[in-house]
Amino acid sequence: AWFMVMIALGISARTIIPEGTGEDHVLLKLVESIMPAEGYMLLLVVLVSIVMSSLDSLLNAGAVAFAEDTVKPFVKLTDRTALNIGRCATLVIAAIAAAGALVVPSIIDGLLICYTIWAPAILPALIIGLWVKRPRPLAGILSMAVGTLVAIMFQFIFPSAIEAPAIIPALVSALLAYLLGHWLAPPLGGAGLEKIKSGA
């Protein structure tokens, strides 16, 4: 239903808003053209509320993931120390996001860049890991690291090296890295699986 609404709005906007309108401003221009000033202001308030709510959730999720999944497995932390690390991580993530927002030309381009890096880092390890009976942790780590590095390399460092989108070589590299890690590492036994499931 959401996609149908967006498609309908896009078709309507083609006949109402002027050509050359930026893709990030289409919805605002459409509402400004067909609604009174009060409705336009209400939309702006709603959009700001949605953005602030989403940002709050993303910042908290990133900070908790960093403290609990990245630091805590290697360092024994008290609750207060974990809280302070989470606060620092929130500031760092917010600063990186703000810098990225200034560099990315539009919201759509920003999403495409995020998906280009996210998909090779997550999808091969996630999909194959769900179907393999005895997973190898090294395979997942290699797949995520190689997929991320290759995506960043072809997206930012050598964007004109190949004609294909950066996500293609990144996905292929992540898949090959997973297979290499699966072949090199010993399988995770039952005790290891139970440890992962229990979160210990």
TrEMBL record:
State one molecular function term (GO).
transmembrane transporter activity
Where it sits in the cell: the answer is: Membrane
Q: Which UniProt keywords apply?
A: Membrane, Transmembrane, Transmembrane helix, Transport
List where the protein spans the membrane: 40-67, 88-104, 110-131, 138-158, 164-185
* PROSITE patterns, sorted: NA_SOLUT_SYMP_3
Query: What membrane topology does the annotation report for this chain?
Result: Multi-pass membrane protein
An example of a Pfam family matching this protein is SSF
One cellular component GO annotation, for this chain's record? plasma membrane
Q: Which family does it belong to?
A: Belongs to the sodium:solute symporter (SSF) (TC 2.A.21) family.
* Protein name (record): Uncharacterized protein
What organism does this protein naturally occur in? marine sediment metagenome
